[in-house]
Amino acid sequence: MPDQTARPLAADGRGNALTAFIRRAKEQPPGDAPLPLALVALWNGDRVLMVFDRFRQGWELPGGLIEPGESPRRAAARELLEESGQTPGEPLRFVGYPRFRLAPDQRVEYGALFSGRCAEAVAFRPNEEIEAIWWWDLREALPGRVQPLDAHLARLTRLPL
What we know:
Elements: E1 10-11, E2 17-22, E3 37-44, E4 47-53, E5 58-60, E6 63-65, H1 72-84, E7 93-102, E8 107-117, E9 130-136, H2 148-157
Parallel strand pairs: 3-8
Antiparallel strand pairs: 1-2, 2-7, 3-4, 3-6, 4-5, 4-9, 7-8
């Protein structure tokens, strides 16, 4: 179990924090907190896909809740397609389990983080949840607020070209 007193890897100023990142086999999820979500870092060359969430008003990695009976990998692929219209050109690669402490109640939960490559980006159509997408090189400033937890996770998934 991660050290509860350790400094977070990233925090967002709204009371949310990325408190740990656990690299282990996907078949061995941590058991000390729920695992309700899956995230995807989809790369096109040296740029990672970020989506602008209308409700949270910020740039973040595509992802969302794992539905009952759904595997984390399937949830990641579904959320990626629903939120951005993008599909990976290869099977998603499991990266690890980010551990979050979330406001306002400071509940602890895990996510399953996946990474993949996109050979060819498709045109994006805004939807009810996502206003825009951006292929981010991790160095440039994005227009608006970037979720620091997701930016940190994107950096952890950077794949060699």
